[in-house]
Amino acid sequence: MHPLLLPWRTTSFFLVFGFLFFSAATLPACKSTDLVGMQNATNLSTQLTTLMNKANEPFAKHSDEIKSAMSALMAAEQHATEQPRNKIIAKQWTTLRTGLVEPFITRWKEGKLDKDFIKEAVLQVQNSLAAIRKAGKK
Amino acid sequence: MPDKKEIQKALDGLDDQVITLVSDFVKRRRAHYEQAAKSLHDQLKKDTRRYAELLADEKISREDFEFLLQGRATQLKIELLAELAISKAKFEDIAVAILKLTIQTVFALI
């Protein structure tokens, strides 16, 4: 046998070990469900819906509640950003905050909002949070 | 002791199975995408029509209407990102399925 060639028993050992090592390294890459992230989406769906439904009342009356909801939303976004292999879901949270929730709060700050408008805006936030949960369940 | 030629033959024989496996996943993914796109489009049409009716009935202002359209575009973006997350997960499923097939084949011979 050529001295550079390993005996078959050694080669097969390395082959099997290599496969096992590769599978052990690869399987955790299949992202498991982020339970905290899912819980954040569920909790915020209730918190934001309750808050937004009060937008037909003066903004100042609910400023503490608004601050609390915005903190919870930013914490959820931060959590998503810190998870490994979670770029897409983190992007969803950022889009929800900058494209839906903050613009709604800004309009509310300008003055009380109509019920029909609030109902539709709430639906958009609820459906977006459902999409975040869907992505989290993958 | 396992025959090296047998192992080589078995691994070469996986080529067709891998192609079949991948095309099965892609077929399923294509069907999923078509269904998801149709569903998202149907919902988008339904919502836009509802906003337009609210505007026509003067239940919301033009400013509200434009705000809702913009918000609906944001919602669609978030929904599309969800589909992208799922397709990425499916790609990982393909990699794991190929890995399992290869390992099982080798284990069957040694």
Q: Into which percent range does the helicity of residues of chain B fall?
A: over 70%
Question: Rg of chain B from C-alpha positions?
Answer: 24 Å
Described by the principal axes of the CA atoms, the overall outline of chain B is rod-shaped
Indicate the proportion of strand residues of chain B. under 5%
Oligomeric form of this entry? heterodimer
Give the amount of beta strand of chain A, in percent: under 5%
Describe the structure.
The complex is a heterodimer of chains A (about 140) and B (about 110). With about 140 residues, chain A is an all-alpha fold. Chain A has helices at about 10-25, 35-50, 65-80, 85-110, 115-135. The longest helix of chain A is centred in the last third of the chain and has 24 residues, at about 85-110. Helix content of chain B is about 90%, strand content about 0%. Chain B is built from three helices and no strands. The chains are: A mainly alpha (about 140), B mainly alpha (about 110). The interface between A and B is large, with 39 and 38 residues.
Outline the secondary-structure elements:
The complex is a heterodimer of chains A (138) and B (110).
Chain A: H1 8-26, H2 35-52, H3 63-82, H4 87-110, H5 115-137
Helix pairs in contact in A: 2-3, 2-5, 3-4, 4-5
Chain B: H1 4-12, H2 14-56, H3 62-109
Helix pairs in contact in B: 1-3, 2-3
Tags for this model:
heterodimer, A: 138 residues, mainly alpha, B: 110 residues, rod-shaped
Quick rundown:
The complex is a heterodimer of chains A (138) and B (110). Chain A contains five helices and no strands.
